[in-house]
Sequence to fold (158 residues):
Amino acid sequence: MDGGQSGVIVREALPGEDAWALDLAVRVAGDQVPPTRDAAGPLLAVNVERLFAFCRVREHRLLIADREGQPIGFLLLLINFPNEVTGLPEGYVAYMAVVSEERRRGVARALLTAAEAEARRCGMQQMSLIVTEGNEPAIRLYDSLKYVVERTVRCKNL
Ligand SMILES: CC(C)(COP(=O)(O)OP(=O)(O)OC[C@H]1O[C@@H](n2cnc3c(N)ncnc32)[C@H](O)[C@@H]1OP(=O)(O)O)[C@@H](O)C(=O)NCCC(=O)NCCS
Fold:
């Protein structure tokens, strides 16, 4: 797979890169905390580990953005994941992140474009994901690739 971003290829993870991706996911976990919530670091890390464990035992792809043999970003994709409303199988972006030094260079766009191609190749007709209110880089990324909002999660402090 080649995501098209200059000098960067998107490929499936090599053995051991799951741990690298998990480490990056834990480091950026704070970006996913909505402004309405308090969050404790250790519990956030446990939750990210739980998400990775959930994906590992399902049909998934761990895509790595690679610059000169070094991983610089990842996207964890579920295939044949049942949509929570319709139950129909779809591609689902469980997590993605790019190392901070490589941001705004099109790496996430390359990862998501490659994930869409892989989901399509597997017969998926839709792709979905959840993004946190206030995570502007991610929201703008998904807007730019034409992801539309179809449901929202509401919360109230008690
Ligand atoms: C969100 C994230 C993955 C984006 O990665 P990235 O490689 O920097 O994104 P790209 O360079 O591919 O950006 C593609 C488009 O997204 C939008 N975008 C990305 N980062 C942005 C920012 N900081 N501000 C405004 N728009 C941004 C732009 O439209 C951009 O296109 P442009 O540069 O041509 O204007 C990265 O910021 C990240 O790892 N954040 C922490 C983890 C996270 O929040 N993951 C998302 C979980 S839902």
In short: The beta strands are 8-12, 60-67, 70-82, 89-98, 127-129. The chain has one domain: 8-144. The first helix runs from residue 17 to 27. The helical segments are 17-27, 41-56, 107-121, 136-144.
